[in-house]
C-alpha cells in the first residue's frame, strides 16, 4: 500500500511539472509575463522548463526518484520564493492557483524524498 501511495504521489508531481511545460515552451503570454517580471525571460523560462522536464522523468524512474524529488524541490522552492518576493500570491488574476500548485508540489516532493531517504547516497566523514 505504501508503494502505491508513493507511486501516486510521484505521478502527481510529474503530471504537474509536465503540464506546465506547454506554457513555458510555447511562450504563452502568462509564462512570458511571469519570467519577464522576475528578469529571467526567455532563457530562464526555457531553462526552468528543461529542468522540470528532467525532474519529471527522474521522479518516475525507481532508481532516480530521490534525484527527481530533490530537483523538484529546488525548482519549485525557487518558484515559491519568486511568488513571495516579486510576483505575489496571485498572478494575472489566477486567485493564487499557480502559487497553491507550487506549494502542493513542494510538499509532495518532500514526502517523496522522505519516503526515498534510504536511497540517498551516504556521505562519509573524513
From TrEMBL:
Keywords, alphabetical: Membrane, Transmembrane, Transmembrane helix
Parts of the chain that traverse the membrane: 7-23, 43-61, 68-91, 97-114
Topology with respect to the bilayer: Multi-pass membrane protein
UniProt KW Membrane keyword: yes
Highest taxon in the source lineage: Bacteria
Localization terms from the record: Membrane
Any Pfam family hit: DoxX
InterPro entries assigned: DoxX (IPR032808)
The keyword S-adenosyl-L-methionine belongs to this UniProt entry's keyword annotation: no
A Gene Ontology term for the protein's cellular component: membrane
Protein name listed in UniProt: DoxX family protein
Species per Swiss-Prot/TrEMBL record: Snuella sedimenti
Amino acid at each position: 500500500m505504501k508503494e502505491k501511495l508513493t507511486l501516486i504521489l510521484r505521478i502527481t508531481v510529474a503530471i504537474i511539472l509536465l503540464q506546465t511545460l506547454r506554457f513555458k515552451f510555447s511562450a504563452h503570454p502568462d509564462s512570458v509575463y511571469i519570467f519577464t517580471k522576475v528578469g529571467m525571460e526567455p532563457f530562464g523560462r526555457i531553462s526552468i522548463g528543461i529542468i522540470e522536464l528532467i525532474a519529471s522523468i527522474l521522479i518516475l524512474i525507481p532508481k532516480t526518484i530521490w534525484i527527481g524529488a530533490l530537483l523538484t524541490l529546488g525548482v519549485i522552492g525557487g518558484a515559491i520564493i519568486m511568488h513571495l518576493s516579486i510576483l505575489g500570491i496571485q498572478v494575472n488574476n489566477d486567485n493564487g492557483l499557480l502559487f497553491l500548485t507550487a506549494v502542493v508540489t513542494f510538499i509532495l516532493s518532500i514526502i517523496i524524498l522522505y519516503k526515498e531517504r534510504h536511497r540517498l547516497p551516504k556521505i562519509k566523514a573524513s
